[in-house]
Structures are given as C-alpha cells and as structure tokens.
Fold this sequence. Notes:
It contains six helices and twelve strands. By secondary structure, the chain is of the alpha/beta class. It has a single domain, classed as Alpha/Beta hydrolase fold, catalytic domain (Rossmann fold, 3-Layer(aba) Sandwich), CATH 3.40.50.1820. The strands form three sheets. The protein has an eight-stranded mixed beta sheet, with helices on both faces.
Amino acid sequence: xxxxxxxxxxxxxxxxxxxxxxxxxxxxxxxxxxxxxxxxxxxxxxxxxxxxxxxxxxxxxxxxxxxxxxxxxxxxxxxxxxxxxxxxxxxxxxxxxxxxxxxxxxxxxxxxxxxxxxxxxxxxxxxxxxxxxxxxxxxxxxxxxxxxxxxxxxxxxxxxxxxxxxxxxxxxxxxxxxxxxxxxxxxxxxxxxxxxxxxxxxxxxxxxxxxxxxxxxxxxxxxxx
Length: 225
C-alpha cells in the first residue's frame, strides 16, 4: 500500500503532459502490459490503438487529453508485433485484447481513478466494446468507438457511447458505415453516432482536414456533464 501511495505521489508531481512508460500485470497470467501514461487526476482515459498503429501513435491526442484533465493510459496489446518492414502489427484476438483493456481499468483504479473512459480505434474499438460488454455496468463511464462497431454484443454495452466513422471509410468487404450503424441501432441509450466527411480509417483521420473536428468531437463527448 505504501508503494502505491508513493507511486501516486510521484505521478502527481510530474508535468501534466509528461509521458511515462509503465507496466502492469494481466490477471492470472505472467504477461505484463506496457503502456504510456500521461497526465494526472482521478478522471482516467484508456486509449486502445488500431491494428496498423501502436501505443505511441496516440501521443499528440494523449497530451491534449492530459491537458484537459485526464489521466491517460495508451496501452500496448500483448499481441502487438512488428512487420518485417518495421511497421506495427497487432496479432491478438479480440477476447485477449478485451482482457488487456480490463487490466488497464484495474491499474487505473489502483492509481486512484474514480471514473474510467476509453477510446478505441478500429481493432482497439472492438477490444473496448468487448471489454465493456463483459464487465459490470459502471466499469466504463463512457466509450468512444472510432471506426469500430464495438464487438459482437452492442446490446450489452453500458454507459455513454459515441460511435464515429468517416462516411466513405471502406474495408475489403465494403463500407464500414452500414455495419456500424446496425450496431449503433442495437446499442442502448445514451448513445451518439457521428459521421464525418471523407474516407480515411480510424486514427488516420487525425492527419486529415477532419482531424481537428474529430478531436473536438471526442473531447467534447468526454467532457460533457
């Protein structure tokens, strides 16, 4: 307990936007999750990256969230790897990734978080949705599903939900909007669906002219009373 108190004290003394590498355990496993921790406070936010990204890809957004008062944790999934060309690749299953997200919730609670929200992009959004669906109501204050339908059980999602997708975002099997709209319709209130112009997928939107609007929409949702 003393170590935990000292850790929380050290974190509170660091700059709000400073990035710290942390590790925490997965229940009943020897694996450890690596993550980048930003900010401080009792209002926590998990960032779950897409399949072609890694935890470091959130840095710009994480610093903005931290400056807005969030304790931010950008996680590395246990199945994350590198392609032969050095680009990031995520190989884990949705079920395993959901466990990783829930381990992140526990870690943030141990740091003193009173509420935990999550932003999941594409692959990461499926993990966040699965984690929400399999956990007790109240585990997540609110979730953002960026270019993701949120897993296979939208009716079991709890708390506030924001679905965001670019209108022309397309996978190998077709436009993503119809499937996301279907899951949105099955989700319980409170919920919100935002469709942006363009065709970029998930975190790629941040680098387009729609990037500022995407960030404003997510941050507004997370901060609204």
